[in-house]
Amino acid sequence: MIAIVNVCLREGRGGSPTAVVDDAAPATLTDAERSRVPVRCGTSHAVFVTRRHPQSAPGVSTPHESRAATAPSTVDLRFFTAGGELPACGHGTIAAMAFLARQRGSTEHEFRLCVSARTFAGRAVLDGDTIHAAFDPGSVALREPASAEIDPVVAALGVGPDLLAPGACVASLGRARMLIPVATPAVVAALVPEFDRLRAACDRFGLLGCYVYSAPTSAGRVTARMFAPSIGVPEDIANANSTACLAAHLADRGVTDLRVDMGDALGSPATITASTRRCPTGLKILVGGAATFTGTR
Predict the structure, then answer these.
(1) Rg (CA), the chain
(2) CATH class, range 141-288
(3) Stated pTM of the model
(4) What are residue 136's DSSP bridge partners?
């Protein structure tokens, strides 16, 4: 059975449908079969969830006992699109936590999430039929792109030089993607990329795609679109990891809280939240969104 979870809802509606598979017997599916799951389910991504350790027995104290109704669970996550496996997927991580929290039933849940040999923390809270989940995506590597990288990507997007804003960068969180600022939300909404050209440009520079965004308002509101033809997703309804990359990019400019609206061009409004704070070990990022179940396949 495959659960379908709508992730990163905006005011209770829309979101990105994501297939979640309880992968209790991981040897039963080949990776090629896993890549067919999102196609079969009509979703852009699928996440495969494997519980590494059983839940703690009742009465066993944990460091999080005062905040979570049950002890943290350790789970392995793998992510697939039609184009193959991904090293990380933000909205897939949120979908997995929503799936696990709903199964456990109590209100608050904490998780140790294992993705591509990295273990990090996540938390989910049930509020009626909605699950609010957030996680620490890890450190983001940022660099300034060369003009030879920017020019073909911008040309494929169809953005004129007068509509670009300064501050493009290449951000890596699992895989590299280009963050491209434009003048206004209307410019973001009007984009009509040439996907073959965009894929060729992204493949040439080792990018999974490009994330186009408008400048944040004084309240931290951003409009964005994520194009990722290189991984078989022409446009993503919601992209939490790229939003985490944007949060890291804007942190030095004093922007510490973001609410990023995506998905409108695809008829499925989505919102992702991200916050940053400085700590002794570096920049701490928290990214998340709301989710709900829509059925099974």
Answers:
(1) 19
(2) alpha beta
(3) 0.90
(4) none
